[in-house]
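Entry 14. Structure prediction run on the chain below.
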Amino acid sequence: MLTLHATAADGSAVLVEGERVKALGPYEELAAAHPQARVRNWPGILTPGLLNPYGPEILEGTYHPDPREADQYGTAPIGGERAREIFRADPSRLGASARRGVQRLFAHGTVALAGELRAKPVLEVAQRSGLVFAARPDGLPGPVSLSPKPLVLLPGLAVGGPARFAVFDVADRADLVRRGASTCVATVIGGRLVYRGR
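Output returned:
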């Protein structure tokens, strides 16, 4: 099935077929050439997606509470010694926490991770999610964050390349840098919509 992802800020679009990018260009041209494509209209801009350099810190060193645990742990990610205590008390929580952590990464336009994942349940979750693994930058940008500063954008999309990208509700890339990755409204990996903002 063909899916045409169109953005409001600049009128650009990406045509996806299966797991690959079939075409790139202005929305009007692609829509006219492929009238059978399902259309997804998004606010803002479409980018190749983000690399988060803090894979181990976010997925192995942070506990992402289940919403059903809100009374006990709250809803925000828990790091440091408290996270280690939770995982020591019940090691089976690591995989479930990593699944929720991956969803948080998707909600911030992350399509690639850096850093070596050592815990088998976490590595399996990350691999199944479709996240790409990349080399860790020499100098990390700052504190561990779902929206690190500076943001690390992946190389541009290419026809025939993987359909892996994110959409941010911002005016342009400078606005994305200013406002951060929490402006993400959609993340696509392997042609699948893995995150859609409300």
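The CA atoms of residues 52 and 113 lie 5 Å apart.
Filed with the rest of this week's runs.
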